[in-house]
Specification:
Layout: E1 2-4, E2 10-12, H1 18-28, E3 33-39, E4 42-47, H2 48-64, E5 72-76, H3 81-92, E6 96-100, H4 106-115, E7 118-123, H5 126-136, E8 144-147, E9 161-163, H6 164-177, H7 181-188, E10 194-199, E11 209-213, H8 214-228, E12 235-237, H9 245-258, E13 261-264, H10 271-278, E14 282-284, H11 287-303, H12 306-327, H13 334-355, E15 362-365, H14 372-380, E16 385-391, E17 396-400, E18 413-414, E19 419-422, E20 427-431, E21 438-439, H15 443-449, E22 456-464, E23 470-475, E24 480-481, E25 487-488, H16 490-497, E26 503-509, E27 516-522, H17 524-533, H18 541-546, H19 548-566, E28 576-581, H20 601-607, H21 609-615, E29 621-629, E30 635-646
């Protein structure tokens, strides 16, 4: 059997594992760039041939250290070509990589290392090695630790600690003695083998290890590459956590299938600068990134001269009116087309260049629903941003938005080879080639999530609209009712609120209550800039959040949200009645967010129960105290006197039938 993939040429369908794909790409795209990394301000590059040679050295070195088929190898660090390479090296030997969140604290790493029965671990640098050393005594199966960056590790003399280069040197020795070893090991692999274990974010308890096969990822990657016309010449920026399934699919799966180049930024602090330098043609970001970029744009425009502000406002109005129609190839008047062309020269082009999105052909967002206004803003600039809906258990893709069929309030049609159905209770279910094998060592959870005939329960409530597009309402378990019977969909409300650049996070309450209330986190940059222009003094987030002027600003934003909700026949009863601004930002280190920045509602509800009860009383102020965790692991206490405010209601425009 022969098939063709984007990038040119036919290849055997036997390319069913990543190591087999690697050897094929090293031959077909030998001198094409496979990976880049910015180090000390300079971009370093690896061709597919060089990448394959390095992976062979590492795999053979791991074998010399005793790595065996079926072994698990933990990988922890920022996006680095050598860490991606280590995944393929382990897979070549029949092992299973287990990427972990680089900002995870030692206790979180300990759970995953023990649960996954990890024998080997690769840490990026001293920080990650120190965390692994801290937990090693509590992880009896962990035998060998390898590090990539040697800085700060000169005096570390543990016998089980090796540098990446040392392991590769061992591997070169093994290759000289047994030149056929690597290819023989690769040949033993098959598409049904487990390719990776990715741990869920753990919003409701301990994370679960999702086992995905080579077939799961490669077939899903191939289908999505063909659907979107990705090609070997494309470029991506890998900056999202390697432990997240999206990064594994975009920066590893699709890269090996299509053969395009993966660029790794110098650090998390330089991502935006590196984005502008790389100018990717294919880009993925969760809504929070797009929201942050837009916030920065708006802050800069507030600082611009008056004439620039007027020009920006005028041409953005043109873009809002006709930009998306032009992007989708629809007919617009000659006058509007000319104005849009002029706006491209004066505003849209420079703006896209500033954002680093000038060359983007395809951009995606997923993970959380993106605000329709934010979504339309980017599309009006001519950026082909689309939404997808996916899960770790699906190897990402469940639905995708086809070109020309983009709706801001849906997540598209089923991805290739994906079936979708809506259960009687409104829950979305799917079946696809990407459906995970099982949860590692958790047959009960597997049985709860996946049926015997391969259908997966998503836990999300949604419906298929008249055009065949899926619309997600909320997490099924989170959708509730107010005491008057009105629907309460917290995530839907929160996403509307987060459109305002002054609001970073929102948590809505209302199920089995008389009305809807909110916790708000302000955006320190946006609100700080707003306050400075008005000579409003503050010394910290806590002080700024308590300023009456800031509370009134947020109150006005929420009034506008109520106007939108009043026009929705199904959600007009869910208007916001009361709110407060938390004196601290919700934080993953405090357990309030997952490492993928999803709200952990149960923990927040328990931790701030007195504040919630105050919102459902006639109190105007309430004292609070909570513990916080600093970056270095120390803890402290925040005490505050929090003001509670009402939000004006709006008469419903229409009643639900």
């Amino acid at each position: 059997m022969v098939e063709t993939t984007p990038g040119g040429g036919a290849h055997s369908a036997a390319l069913d594992t990543f190591p087999k794909l690697l050897l094929d790409r090293a031959e077909r795209y030998r001198d094409a760039h496979a990976a880049r990394e910015k180090e000390f301000g300079i971009w370093q590059s690896w061709t597919w041939h060089e990448l394959a040679e390095g992976i062979q050295d590492l795999a053979c070195g791991l074998a010399e250290l005793g790595f065996q088929r079926g072994d698990k190898i933990a990988i922890i660090g920022d996006n680095r070509p050598r860490l991606y390479a280590s995944m393929c090296a382990a897979q070549a030997l029949g092992g299973v990589p287990v990427p972990m969140y680089q900002d995870g604290v030692a206790k979180e790493l300990q759970f995953v290392v023990n649960h996954a029965e990890v024998r080997f671990a690769i840490g990026e640098d001293q920080e990650q090695v120190d965390k692994l050393l801290e937990i090693k005594d509590a992880c009896p199966r962990l035998e060998t630790i390898i590090y990539d960056d040697p800085r700060g590790l000169r005096k570390y003399e543990q016998s089980y600690l090796f540098s990446y280069k040392q392991v590769q040197e061992m591997g070169r020795g093994r290759r000289e003695k047994d030149p056929g070893f690597f290819t023989a090991e690769v040949a033993k692999g098959s598409g049904s083998d487990t390719a990776i274990i990715l741990y869920t974010s753990g919003t409701t308890g301990n994370p679960k290890g999702v086992m995905l096969s080579h077939d799961n990822i490669i077939i899903t990657a191939r289908n999505s590459v063909e659907r979107d016309g990705l090609r070997q010449e494309d470029e991506v920026l890998a900056y999202l956590p390697m432990a997240w399934v999206g990064d594994n699919l975009f920066s590893f799966g699709q890269a090996y299938v299509a053969g395009f180049c993966v660029n790794c930024p110098e650090s998390g602090a330089t991502v935006m600068q590196d984005l502008r330098e790389v100018g990717p043609t294919y880009f993925f970001a969760p809504p929070a990134i797009y929201e942050s970029l837009l916030t920065n744009v708006m802050i800069r425009m507030e600082d611009a001269a008056g004439i620039k502000q007027k020009m920006f406002g005028y041409f953005m109005a043109v873009a809002k009116r006709v930009g998306t129609q032009i992007l989708d190839g629809e007919a617009v008047s000659t006058k509007d087309r000319l104005l849009y062309w002029l706006g491209g020269i004066l505003v849209y082009g420079p703006l896209k260049n500033t954002l680093g999105l000038s060359r983007v052909r395809i951009a995606y967002t997923a993970g959380e629903a993106i605000g329709p206004d934010i979504f339309d803003f980017y599309r009006s600039l001519g950026i082909n941003i689309k939404q997808l809906y996916g899960q770790t258990e699906a190897a990402v893709f469940v639905t995708m938005q086809p070109d020309g069929e983009i709706k801001p309030d849906t997540v598209g049609t089923p991805a290739p080879q994906v079936e979708i159905r809506i259960a009687d209770n409104g829950e979305v279910m799917y079946r696809s080639p990407g459906v995970f094998q099982c949860y590692y060592k958790n047959p009960e959870a597997t049985a709860e999530t996946k049926t015997e005939d391969g259908w997966v329960h998503t836990g999300d409530a949604g419906y298929i609209d008249e055009d065949g597009h899926l619309k997600i309402i909320d997490r099924a378990k989170d959708v509730g009712k107010l005491n008057d019977g009105s629907m309460f969909a917290p995530k839907y409300i929160e996403n509307k609120i987060k459109f305002f650049p002054q609001i970073k996070e929102a948590v809505a309450f209302g199920n089995e209550r008389d009305y809807v209330t909110l916790f708000i986190n302000i955006d320190l940059d946006a609100v700080g800039n707003w306050a400075e222009k008005r000579n409003i003094p503050y010394a910290s987030y806590q002080e700024l959040a308590a300023r009456p002027e800031v509370i009134e600003l947020i109150q006005e934003n929420l009034r506008k949200v109520n106007i939108d909700l009043a026009a929705d026949a199904h959600l007009s009863g869910s208007q916001i009645r009361r709110f407060l601004i938390l004196p601290k930002e919700l934080d993953a280190d405090d357990g309030e967010l997952t490492r993928t920045l999803k709200v952990r509602r149960r923990i927040i509800a328990e931790r701030y129960a007195p504040l919630i009860e105050a919102l459902y009383s006639d109190q105007r102020r309430v004292a609070m105290q909570t513990q916080v965790t600093f970056e270095d692991g120390r803890t402290g206490t925040i005490k505050a006197d929090v003001e509670l405010r009402n939000v004006p209601g709006v008469a419903p425009v229409a009643k639900a039938s």
